[in-house]
Amino acid sequence: MIDLSCALIFLIPLLLLLAALGFLPWYIGRQNQKTFDILKENQELTRAHLENDRKKEKEKTLIGIKLQAYERMTLFLERINLSNLITRVSLPGQKAGNLHSLLLRSVREEYEHNMSQQLYLSDQTWELIKSAKEEVVRMINVAATKIKQDDDGTVLARELLSTGFESGTNPVDKAMAGVKKDMKDTF
User: Fold this and answer.
1) Burial class of 122 by CB neighbour count within 10 A (0 to 12, 13 to 18, 19+)
2) Per-residue confidence at 165, pLDDT binned at 50, 70, 90?
3) Which ranges constitute the DSSP H helices of 115-152?
4) For residue 154, what pLDDT band results from cuts at 50, 70 and 90?
């Protein structure tokens, strides 16, 4: 028979080899799982960074569009301000009726051209702008009823400028202040 010590000499290394062979797949599997977890975390971080970058880019674009809306509405209000409107629209030798029509058409066209900007302004500010436009139209119409349509256009212009808005009640100035406040509150 084989001596027990001789058998142990062969058996112990064999058991160690079998233990190592059994441990090796477990160890490799564990290392693979760690690597997989790290890759998954990196993928999630990359996805989060990309989403964050996308949001920042959208915000940057929206800020530019909003600023442009404020600029356009400021320009609109300046263009419908009676003194600027009359200067831009009136022509020498023009009849009051013709000037009346041109003033109204200019206000309407300016308004229609800028209506889409309401998407980027507060509802309150947009209402101030609409109110300013409607008040300017009302003033033009009231002044036109006080004179003859065949009068020289300068008569209508003088009537508009002399009547004007009472101090502190100019709806264009009020709307302009609203646009500025809205912009300050937004940014």
Assistant:
1) middle
2) low
3) 123-145
4) very high
Neighbours of 174 (CB within 10 A): 17
**Tell me, which fold does domain 43-186 have in CATH?**
Four Helix Bundle (Hemerythrin (Met), subunit A) (1.20.120)
Structure tokens at 152: 């020289």
Which residue, chain included where needed, has tokens 């999630």?
A: 44
Q: Is the pLDDT of residue 33 over 70?
A: yes
pTM: 0.75
Look at residue 1 and tell me whether its pLDDT is greater than 80: no
Collapse the DSSP code of 122 into the 3-class scheme (helix H, G, I; strand E, B; otherwise coil) and give the result.
coil
Residue 186, Cβ density class (10 Å: 0-12 exposed, 13-18 middle, ≥19 buried): middle
CB-CB neighbours of 2 under 10 Å: 7
Q: Positive or negative CA dihedral for 141, 176, 110, 89?
A: positive
Residues whose CB is less than 8 angstroms from the CB of residue 65 and which lie 6 or more positions away in sequence, other chains included? 120
Task: Label residue 166 by pLDDT band (50, 70, 90).
Answer: low
CB–CB of 10/2 below 8 Å?
Answer: no
- Alpha-carbon span 102 to 98, nearest angstrom: 6
